[in-house]
Every structure is written in structure tokens, then in C-alpha cells.
Amino acid sequence: METNAEAQRNILGLQLPTDPRWVDLAGISMQEILTDHAYCEQKAATTCISLIQRYSSYDKMVNELAPIVTEEWGHFRLVLQELKKRQLVLGKQRKDEYVNQLIAFQVKGGSVEDRFLDQMLTMALIEARSCERFKRLSEGLPDAYMRNFYRRFMESEAGHYALFIELAEFYVNKEKVRNRWKEWLEYEANVINNLEVRGDRIH
Ligand SMILES: [Fe+2]
Ligand SMILES: [Fe+2]
């Protein structure tokens, strides 16, 4: 029998190519890394708020996501602090082709359950990708302080990934979650491959 933790690890064993935006760390400035990161945290917080508004009767989800809003906003503030330390400003938000393409794959009609499931799985993927990005930064940045900085984020986003999968499985039949997750993984791998082909990095 697969334990829940094992099952989640297997799911996280994403057969995903590495996000090309984060391979060549040497070619990315701290300004780019921090600005991009700051907006990711901000979006994570605002998406959690939208989910709470949209699914206000989903008691467990509301209670679990409420503290995540605070946590993600705290992350945003930590990144702002790092920008400030370096006399950098937040700057403009880039167009996030990756997230836009994920949103395009979400079911638009269908049942509330189907839409909810896709929203949970989109968030799970985004968290998994953040986790991967922070892992790379925690291993590849030249500065020891920043490597440690990103190690903490990596752990936190891994926890969020697991939470979104858990919420999906709480409200939706597990088999259905698994099957849809497989479709998402396949789709997402293609999105990443296409980003790579086009040579997109972080803007
Ligand atoms: Fe975060
Ligand atoms: Fe997160």
C-alpha cells in the first residue's frame, strides 16, 4: 500500500524538464531574479485571496489558505527587503507567459468541481516550479547568504505544492485528481519545452 506521503512524493517526481528560465543563472542579474520573485509571491498571495472569495463555502480550503496568504505576503516583503538592501526598486511586472499558458488549459465551462480541481492543480504546478527554481538558486548562486535565503523559500513552496494536492484530493475523488494531474503534467511539460525552444528566459 502506498502511504499518502509516498503517493505525494510520486506525484512530485514530476517527469518535467528543467525550466529553461532558470538554467543559466550566471546570465541573470539579482535585479531580474528578485523582481521576478517578488511578483511571484505577490501573485501567490492574491490568487489565494481570490480562491477564498470564489470558494467561500469550502471551509477547509478557506482555513488552510488564509494563513498561506499571510505567508506569501511575508515572502513578498522579504524579497522587497533584499531589493532595498541593494538599492534596487521593485520595477515592472513581466508578462508571465508560463502562467498564462497554464490558465489557458483550465476548463472554462464544466462543473464547479472541474473548475475547482483545475485551479488547485494549476497552483500545485506553479508551487512545484517555484520550488524547483528556488532549489536551483539555493545551489547555484555565488553568494552564500542568498543560497540560504532561497533554501528557505524552497522548503516553504514544497509545502504549498503538497497542500494544493491535498485540497484537491479532499474535495474531489482521488482517482479523478490523479488522472487530471497526469494531463496537466503532460501539458505543462510541453509549455516548458516551448519556452525553451523560443529561448524565453525570465522576460
Ligand atoms: Fe512563497
Ligand atoms: Fe507558495
TrEMBL record:
<dbReference type="GO" id="GO:0006400">
    <property type="term" value="P:tRNA modification"/>
</dbReference>
<protein>
    <submittedName>
        <fullName>tRNA 2-methylthio-N6-isopentenyl adenosine(37) hydroxylase MiaE</fullName>
    </submittedName>
</protein>
<dbReference type="InterPro" id="IPR012347">
    <property type="entry name" value="Ferritin-like"/>
</dbReference>
<dbReference type="Pfam" id="PF06175">
    <property type="entry name" value="MiaE"/>
</dbReference>
<dbReference type="GO" id="GO:0045301">
    <property type="term" value="F:tRNA 2-(methylsulfanyl)-N(6)-isopentenyladenosine(37) hydroxylase activity"/>
</dbReference>
<dbReference type="InterPro" id="IPR009078">
    <property type="entry name" value="Ferritin-like_SF"/>
</dbReference>
<dbReference type="InterPro" id="IPR010386">
    <property type="entry name" value="tRNA-Hydrxlase_MiaE"/>
</dbReference>
